[in-house]
Design goal:
This is leucine--tRNA ligase. Belongs to the class-I aminoacyl-tRNA synthetase family. The chain has 256 residues and is α+β, with helices and mostly antiparallel strands. Helices cover 30% and strands 23% of the residues. Strand 6 and strand 7 form a beta hairpin. The chain is globular. The structure holds ligand A2H.
């Protein structure tokens, strides 16, 4: 953890189709014509092309918070409070009240639109035990090509779909290369997970090492392989991708 404030990009993943449990929990609590977004906080906006699913903590409680007349955000109450202070929610700086509450596990299977993702038909909400309720928004978008944590979790989910109460194919969306690196190739996270012999999301120590290696290599030596900034270094592409997402209304700045 750094000392200064962490500048995240908060991405807006619009709900296309709720899981049945989530649909029941929010019924009648928000206007029929409102859009609801799951809002993951990321430090790697340039990797959003590679989103294959969206993680929630199965035991974490989330709220639907009003951002405008027609938009609601799904985040933890803690994040909503920070957002209100930052002028992001329609709460006028007051402590925001959730229009509805949802437990993470109830949202599993929900289909969301992931901005920039190569998976244009949407991606599924899936459970991740390692999501911390005390960091970001409690929602994590999954980019298994470049995040060892994400790769390890989708691999685990695809191994035991019944145990996790999901459909196997939800965890098996194609992982496309988005960033090329000199040392680890163009699928940095799968490469490092294999190299360090990481077997499950419980190998926390090796995952930490893989995460540091992937981050340093990707950020300082990576080159974009997809999108408007193909051929540009990650270092230069990152702020450009972030700004275009914000300009398109698909993301906003969030700090904590
Ligand atoms: B990152 P920092 Cl491709 N619990 O986004 C656990 N992890 C969380 C979280 C939470 N509540 N909130 C955010 N995160 C993840 C992309 C990514 C990320 C890539 C590579 C590395 C990476 C796609 N997942 O993060 O502790 C989010 O995953 C490695 C550092 O605030 C977010 O960025 O520094 C990052 O951790 C924020 O971690």
């Amino acid at each position: 953890e750094g000392v200064g404030p962490q500048e995240y990009t908060a991405l807006k993943l619009r709900v296309l189709e709720w899981s049945s449990k989530a649909a029941d929990a929010i019924k009648g609590k928000i206007p029929e014509d409102a859009s609801v977004f799951l809002v993951p906080a990321t430090l790697r906006p340039e990797t959003m092309y590679g989103q294959t699913c969206c993680f929630i903590g199965p035991k974490i409680t989330y709220g639907l918070f009003k951002a405008s007349e027609k938009e609601y955000y799904v985040v933890t109450a803690r994040a909503a409070k920070n957002m209100a202070f930052q002028g992001i929610l329609a709460a006028d700086g007051a402590i925001p009240e959730a229009a509805a509450e949802l437990v993470g596990s109830d949202m599993v299977g929900t289909l969301v639109n992931a901005p920039l993702s190569v998976h244009k038909d949407g991606v599924r909400v899936l459970p991740m035990e390692n999501v911390l309720p005390t960091k970001g928004t409690g929602v994590v978008t999954s980019v298994p090509s470049d995040s060892p944590d994400d790769f390890c979790t989708v691999t685990e989910l695809a191994k035991k779909p019944e145990y996790y109460g999901i459909q196997k194919e939800w965890a098996e969306k194609e992982i496309v290369p988005i960033i090329d690196t000199p040392s680890y190739g163009d699928l940095c996270a799968p490469f490092l997970v294999k190299k360090l012999k990481i077997a499950s999301p419980k190998d926390v120590k090796q995952l930490e090492e893989a995460k540091n290696l992937a981050y340093t290599e990707g950020f300082y030596k990576g080159v974009m392989k997809v999108g408007d900034h193909t051929g540009l270094s990650v270092e230069k592409a990152k702020p450009l991708v972030r700004q275009s997402l914000i300009d398109a209304g698909e993301a906003f700045a969030y700090a904590e």
